[in-house]
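Everyone, describe these C-alpha coordinates:
***
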Amino acid sequence: MKRLQQQIEFILEIDKLKKIIRQNYLADGSRKESDTDHSWHLAIMCFLLEEYANEKIDVLKTMKMVLIHDIVEIDAGDTYAYDESANANDKRKREVLAADRIFNILPQDQAKTMRDLWDEFEEGKTMEAKFANALDKIQPALLNDASGGKSWLEHGVAHTQILKRNEKTSEGSKVLWKYIKEIIEKNVIVGKIINK
Protein backbone atom coordinates (compact mmCIF):
# COMPACT_ATOMS: atom_id res chain seq x y z
CA MET A 1 0.00 0.00 0.00
CA LYS A 2 2.93 2.36 0.52
CA ARG A 3 3.73 2.20 -3.21
CA LEU A 4 0.14 2.96 -4.17
CA GLN A 5 0.01 5.81 -1.67
CA GLN A 6 3.14 7.37 -3.20
CA GLN A 7 1.66 7.05 -6.69
CA ILE A 8 -1.61 8.67 -5.59
CA GLU A 9 0.31 11.46 -3.86
CA PHE A 10 2.19 12.13 -7.12
CA ILE A 11 -1.05 12.09 -9.13
CA LEU A 12 -2.57 14.66 -6.79
CA GLU A 13 0.62 16.75 -6.81
CA ILE A 14 0.71 17.00 -10.60
CA ASP A 15 -2.90 18.20 -10.59
CA LYS A 16 -1.29 21.56 -9.76
CA LEU A 17 0.04 21.68 -13.33
CA LYS A 18 -3.49 22.57 -14.46
CA LYS A 19 -3.06 25.96 -12.75
CA ILE A 20 0.22 26.87 -14.49
CA ILE A 21 -0.73 29.30 -17.24
CA ARG A 22 1.49 29.82 -20.28
CA GLN A 23 1.78 32.91 -22.46
CA ASN A 24 0.33 31.28 -25.58
CA TYR A 25 -3.36 31.52 -26.34
CA LEU A 26 -5.60 28.71 -27.49
CA ALA A 27 -6.12 28.59 -31.26
CA ASP A 28 -9.34 30.59 -30.97
CA GLY A 29 -7.62 33.25 -28.83
CA SER A 30 -10.23 32.92 -26.07
CA ARG A 31 -7.79 32.27 -23.23
CA LYS A 32 -4.20 31.39 -22.48
CA GLU A 33 -3.35 27.71 -22.38
CA SER A 34 -2.31 25.85 -19.25
CA ASP A 35 0.67 23.52 -19.00
CA THR A 36 -1.71 20.57 -19.09
CA ASP A 37 -3.36 21.89 -22.26
CA HIS A 38 0.09 22.19 -23.79
CA SER A 39 1.36 18.76 -22.72
CA TRP A 40 -1.80 16.99 -23.89
CA HIS A 41 -1.61 18.79 -27.22
CA LEU A 42 2.02 17.72 -27.72
CA ALA A 43 1.15 14.09 -26.93
CA ILE A 44 -1.57 14.08 -29.58
CA MET A 45 0.77 15.81 -32.05
CA CYS A 46 3.41 13.14 -31.38
CA PHE A 47 0.93 10.35 -32.11
CA LEU A 48 -0.36 12.03 -35.29
CA LEU A 49 2.89 13.45 -36.71
CA GLU A 50 5.48 10.78 -35.84
CA GLU A 51 5.90 9.96 -39.53
CA TYR A 52 7.64 13.34 -39.94
CA ALA A 53 10.40 12.62 -37.44
CA ASN A 54 13.78 12.60 -39.18
CA GLU A 55 14.29 9.02 -37.96
CA LYS A 56 12.05 6.32 -36.54
CA ILE A 57 11.06 7.07 -32.95
CA ASP A 58 9.57 5.16 -30.05
CA VAL A 59 6.21 6.95 -30.07
CA LEU A 60 5.09 5.87 -26.60
CA LYS A 61 8.38 6.96 -25.05
CA THR A 62 8.17 10.32 -26.84
CA MET A 63 4.57 10.79 -25.72
CA LYS A 64 5.59 10.10 -22.13
CA MET A 65 8.38 12.64 -22.51
CA VAL A 66 6.09 15.43 -23.71
CA LEU A 67 3.49 14.62 -21.07
CA ILE A 68 5.98 15.11 -18.23
CA HIS A 69 8.39 17.71 -19.65
CA ASP A 70 6.72 20.67 -17.91
CA ILE A 71 5.85 19.01 -14.58
CA VAL A 72 8.76 20.90 -13.01
CA GLU A 73 6.87 24.14 -13.62
CA ILE A 74 4.68 23.29 -10.61
CA ASP A 75 7.59 24.61 -8.51
CA ALA A 76 9.69 26.50 -11.05
CA GLY A 77 6.84 28.35 -12.78
CA ASP A 78 6.51 28.89 -16.51
CA THR A 79 9.39 30.89 -17.94
CA TYR A 80 8.26 32.63 -21.11
CA ALA A 81 10.23 31.43 -24.12
CA TYR A 82 11.29 34.95 -25.11
CA ASP A 83 12.15 36.25 -21.62
CA GLU A 84 15.89 36.21 -22.21
CA SER A 85 17.00 37.23 -18.71
CA ALA A 86 14.81 34.66 -16.92
CA ASN A 87 15.96 31.94 -19.30
CA ALA A 88 19.63 32.88 -18.88
CA ASN A 89 19.60 33.37 -15.12
CA ASP A 90 18.20 30.69 -12.85
CA LYS A 91 15.67 28.75 -14.94
CA ARG A 92 17.76 25.59 -15.09
CA LYS A 93 18.51 25.66 -11.35
CA ARG A 94 14.83 26.14 -10.46
CA GLU A 95 13.77 23.31 -12.74
CA VAL A 96 16.38 20.84 -11.46
CA LEU A 97 15.35 21.51 -7.86
CA ALA A 98 11.72 20.99 -8.86
CA ALA A 99 12.54 17.72 -10.65
CA ASP A 100 14.39 16.49 -7.55
CA ARG A 101 11.37 17.15 -5.35
CA ILE A 102 8.44 16.25 -7.55
CA PHE A 103 9.67 13.04 -9.19
CA ASN A 104 10.88 11.72 -5.85
CA ILE A 105 7.32 11.66 -4.54
CA LEU A 106 7.00 8.45 -6.58
CA PRO A 107 8.37 5.03 -5.64
CA GLN A 108 12.09 4.88 -6.44
CA ASP A 109 11.79 2.91 -9.71
CA GLN A 110 9.15 5.22 -11.15
CA ALA A 111 10.95 8.31 -9.88
CA LYS A 112 14.05 7.18 -11.79
CA THR A 113 12.06 6.47 -14.95
CA MET A 114 10.39 9.89 -14.85
CA ARG A 115 13.63 11.71 -14.08
CA ASP A 116 15.47 9.85 -16.84
CA LEU A 117 12.79 10.85 -19.36
CA TRP A 118 12.87 14.47 -18.18
CA ASP A 119 16.68 14.58 -18.35
CA GLU A 120 16.62 13.02 -21.82
CA PHE A 121 14.16 15.69 -23.02
CA GLU A 122 16.30 18.45 -21.53
CA GLU A 123 19.52 17.10 -23.08
CA GLY A 124 17.87 16.78 -26.50
CA LYS A 125 20.31 14.21 -27.87
CA THR A 126 18.18 11.15 -28.69
CA MET A 127 15.82 11.11 -31.66
CA GLU A 128 12.85 10.95 -29.30
CA ALA A 129 14.09 14.01 -27.41
CA LYS A 130 14.82 15.89 -30.64
CA PHE A 131 11.32 15.20 -31.96
CA ALA A 132 9.71 16.05 -28.60
CA ASN A 133 11.62 19.34 -28.51
CA ALA A 134 10.63 20.10 -32.11
CA LEU A 135 6.96 19.61 -31.21
CA ASP A 136 7.43 21.81 -28.13
CA LYS A 137 8.73 24.61 -30.36
CA ILE A 138 6.28 24.36 -33.26
CA GLN A 139 3.07 24.03 -31.21
CA PRO A 140 3.23 27.63 -29.92
CA ALA A 141 3.80 28.89 -33.46
CA LEU A 142 0.74 26.97 -34.69
CA LEU A 143 -1.38 28.45 -31.90
CA ASN A 144 -0.03 31.94 -32.50
CA ASP A 145 -0.80 31.73 -36.19
CA ALA A 146 -4.33 30.43 -35.51
CA SER A 147 -5.02 33.17 -32.92
CA GLY A 148 -3.89 35.98 -35.21
CA GLY A 149 -0.45 36.28 -33.62
CA LYS A 150 -2.01 37.25 -30.30
CA SER A 151 0.88 36.25 -28.03
CA TRP A 152 3.56 37.41 -30.48
CA LEU A 153 1.92 40.84 -30.67
CA GLU A 154 1.34 41.04 -26.92
CA HIS A 155 5.04 40.46 -26.22
CA GLY A 156 6.56 42.20 -29.26
CA VAL A 157 8.31 39.04 -30.43
CA ALA A 158 10.91 39.48 -33.17
CA HIS A 159 11.66 37.18 -36.09
CA THR A 160 15.26 36.73 -34.90
CA GLN A 161 14.03 35.56 -31.47
CA ILE A 162 11.85 32.88 -33.04
CA LEU A 163 14.65 31.69 -35.31
CA LYS A 164 17.07 31.50 -32.39
CA ARG A 165 14.57 29.52 -30.29
CA ASN A 166 14.11 27.12 -33.20
CA GLU A 167 17.80 26.58 -34.02
CA LYS A 168 17.49 22.84 -33.40
CA THR A 169 13.89 22.22 -34.47
CA SER A 170 14.97 20.74 -37.81
CA GLU A 171 17.00 18.10 -35.93
CA GLY A 172 13.69 16.58 -34.85
CA SER A 173 11.78 17.11 -38.08
CA LYS A 174 12.94 18.83 -41.23
CA VAL A 175 9.43 18.55 -42.68
CA LEU A 176 7.70 20.17 -39.70
CA TRP A 177 10.36 22.88 -39.46
CA LYS A 178 9.87 23.73 -43.15
CA TYR A 179 6.11 23.93 -42.59
CA ILE A 180 6.34 26.09 -39.48
CA LYS A 181 9.03 28.32 -40.99
CA GLU A 182 6.60 29.24 -43.78
CA ILE A 183 4.00 30.15 -41.14
CA ILE A 184 6.56 32.29 -39.31
CA GLU A 185 7.60 34.08 -42.52
CA LYS A 186 3.94 34.76 -43.40
CA ASN A 187 3.42 36.35 -39.97
CA VAL A 188 6.48 38.55 -40.42
CA ILE A 189 5.06 39.78 -43.73
CA VAL A 190 1.65 40.62 -42.21
CA GLY A 191 3.22 42.33 -39.18
CA LYS A 192 2.32 39.83 -36.44
CA ILE A 193 6.04 39.25 -35.80
CA ILE A 194 8.54 42.11 -35.65
CA ASN A 195 10.85 42.00 -38.67
CA LYS A 196 14.25 42.21 -37.02
